[in-house]
Amino acid sequence: MESKIAIPLIFLAVFYLAGTTISTAVKPSSTFIKSSCATATYPVLCEESLSPFANTIKTRPAQLAHTALAVSLKRSQSTQAYLNKLKRVKGLTPRERSAIGDCLEEVNDSLDRVTKSMQELKHCDRAKGQEFMWHMSNVQTWVSSALTDENTCMDGFGGQAMEGRIKSSVRAQITSVAHVTSNALALVNNFAKKH
Fold this sequence. Notes:
CATH topology: Butyryl-CoA Dehydrogenase, subunit A, domain 3
Structural class: mainly alpha
Strand content: under 5%
Order of helices and strands: HHHHHHHH
Radius of gyration: 23 Å
Mean pLDDT: 86
Number of domains: 1
CATH architecture: Up-down Bundle
């Protein structure tokens, strides 16, 4: 009786181990993302934020750049929603409310620029030569401007009077979106060089 149970258990163990080995094999898309992210400003964040999209990205630099911009757009949208909620919180000082409003304007501008850059990047797939460079230059300019907008957001929170949990929470949101945007810019630049 024991040997009848042991044989199926051995087969199950072999199939389990074989499945584990197959599933843990490194996919070319994962290697591509890792090597591409090595040149980004925040390589670990780059890899973490893009790895879930490995099946879509595969080993295509244009898709990698597009996905990185999509990640930046998503973070910008969640930061925009956060700032809109924060602006309505009771107990804010007039200066805090004003700084949040200014920051929200910068994030709105950033969102607009990232959206434009994603639309422009689509033209790069079909373009060649000077036309490609023209479209890519627009993408680079808009992503760079988006990053500037995000960094400018914190300007209104300067000075000792603004220290506290509101500034800290806004900084955490803005840092998160600025880091993924910085990575997106690096990947866009890499795509431009390789084309």
